[in-house]
Amino acid sequence: MKRVVIEEELLSSGHFACPGCGETLAFRHVLKAIGRKVAVITTAGCGSVVDGYWPLSASKVPFFHCSFGTAAATAAGLKAGLEMIGDRRTTVLAWAGDGGTFDIGFQSLSGAAERNEDILYCCYDNEAYMNTGIQRSSATPKGSWTTTTPIQNLKEEPKKDIDAILAAHRIPYLATASLAFPEDLARKVKKAKTIKGTRFIHLLIPCPPGWRFQPDLTIKLSRLAVESRAFPLYEVEYGMRYQFSPMPEKIPVKEYIRVQGRFSHLSKKQIEVIQREIDTRWEELVDRAH
Amino acid sequence: MRQLLTGNDAAAEAVKLSRVQVIAAYPITPQTSIAESLSDLVSKRKLDARYMRVESETSALACLIGASMAGARAFTATSSQGLALMHELLHWASGARLPIVLINVNRSMASPWSLGTDHIDSLSQRDTGWLQFYCEKAQEVLDTVIIAFRLAEKLLLPVMILSDGFYLSHFVEPVSIPNQKQVDRFLPERKTRYRLNPKDPHTFGGGVSGLIFAKLKKDMQKRMEEAKGVFQSLSEEFESIFGRKYAAVEPYLTEDAEIVLITIGTITGTARAFVDQARQEGKKVGFLKMKMFRPFPEEEARQALKGGKRIVVLDRNISFGAEGIFSQELKAALYGMDPKPEVIDVIAGLGGLDVTPEGLRDLCQKVLRGEIRSGKPYWMGVEG
């Protein structure tokens, strides 16, 4: 099999991530796929803290910490500035969590996407505000426990469909990617790198402390999310051309849910409701792809 | 070359002459015509810049932070609510030590809506680490922008230039436009030691200890203090090339004055007319124009206001629950002077309320008659 992941490590060990952190692994994969000619903008979030405290930094690439709500705008400005000083080749990567993407950074992202700014935006989605200690975001799935959605008052609303929203901006490239399929992830990043305009890659990031599972299960959970269709893998070009990535056999969502402490309170009936919703969303997606 | 320009036209002209490379702006009255003129200049290729038509002022300043981190020269213009929306990023830009220049066309803060000028919007950003310069004339706006880029890039601190909405932004005045060669000589290309560069990778703005944080803030303060001297020497250099001189504070007939008005922005022009007329009538009045607000020109103010003068501060702002902000700052600067000056605070011209020469005459008469004294601020035009 052809190697798609380069040898050179652009993220050092010694970072501040929790054991089993999916975000750090995803960042490593993404940087390797892009290569050295990159400049990274990151917002407040795990990705900001994990990089380390001055004078140490885990990333071996230029890295700027921007305000929580402005990853896309800061990245767009960086790209414009680099071009104006004569650097047209550096890939500008915005690296933001679900809070910085679905919530506080949403306007900035929508603005940049509508203007088709020439940036690669990667959202590491761990489905809650994990860095501040597991609070609900609009990326939190229905029925999930967080510290602000305790079991007496669970999140009843479905997860915001950020991919459909970004696709509706008709950006040239959008993809979802998973840690369980690193070759597919790297291929998507490499493809995104060659495209001009706003490129959005949505990475589902299992979070051991936030989702309540053992740190050795991060990859397994990533795979279960894809297999259960809770997080299908696909690409969209210009908001219209949908293309599924090779998908494994479908499994019931309870196999994905039952391994996570954040869903441990759910009854069989509640899981059946979630299953129906996932089935519906999957059918909608299949329709769009045909 | 002399042309009739509004303050906003003069601002756009200065941005062009300064060879700004990235502009990001969002429309807001009364700033909008700056954004429009710049868009026109870029579209007609009279200015080689990237113009980012963003969806909010927050994103405007965020774009400039990114652009400035790349090493490009960056500019935006805003007003009132827009500046307030930028608040978080004003701190971010100064903390990241980015030499961004911003023009805020002063407009009152809602609620309720008013398009009129006052300085509450910019003075509310006092502690964000930006230098602040208030302008009296369109020519001064143009010249200050050019000086500001040089100053910002020398100090690695951002600069905010203030222009009174409508009175300055929309009134037409004769303006002398410098030629590009002269400007290029005064303001060469921006040079950066550190920027976001894959060939020389660094991390910027990550977590630091309290000690490092405090050291960095102390360095910002040190550079702010140095800014006064740097501004003065740049002003002298500017004068040697362009023949126009600016100072942190500008005294006008203050030596023998019984009353010294403190003026900021376009009220200075009104005070000029009033003082000239009053002097012809033998009345001993003068004024001190304050151009620089951050850093606060303490020494210059003490020098200009020595001798136990009666000082009337025309504050186009109010810090609710205290008094006008220039009055507070001046009192702190003049503390301990012997003989002691008397500082009378006047809240004047909020929401664009017109301050006229006649109004100033009436005000000075009341001060001389002892009807207005130091203590609580006097609300000019809204007595009772």
For the structure shown, list the relevant keywords.
heterodimer; A: eight-stranded mixed sheet; globular; B: alpha/beta; seven-stranded mixed sheet; six-stranded mixed sheet; 13 helices; 41% helix; 19% strand
Topology:
The complex is a heterodimer of chains A (290) and B (384).
Chain A: H1 22-34, E1 38-42, H2 46-50, E2 63-65, H3 71-84, E3 91-97, H4 98-103, H5 106-114, E4 120-125, H6 162-168, E5 173-178, H7 182-194, E6 199-204, H8 208-211, H9 218-227, E7 234-237, E8 241-244, H10 254-257, H11 268-289
Parallel strand pairs in A: 1-2, 1-3, 3-4, 4-6, 5-6
Antiparallel strand pairs in A: 5-7, 7-8
Helix pairs in contact in A: 1-7, 3-5
Chain B: E1 2-6, H1 7-17, E2 22-25, H2 32-43, E3 50-53, H3 57-70, E4 74-78, H4 80-85, H5 87-95, E5 101-106, H6 120-123, E6 131-134, H7 138-155, E7 159-164, E8 172-176, H8 180-186, E9 203-204, H9 210-242, E10 249-252, E11 259-263, H10 267-280, E12 285-290, E13 292-294, H11 298-304, E14 310-315, H12 325-334, E15 342-347, H13 357-368, E16 378-379
Parallel strand pairs in B: 2-3, 2-4, 4-5, 5-7, 6-7, 11-12, 11-14, 14-15, 15-16
Antiparallel strand pairs in B: 1-8, 6-13, 10-12
Helix pairs in contact in B: 1-2, 1-7, 3-5, 7-9, 10-13
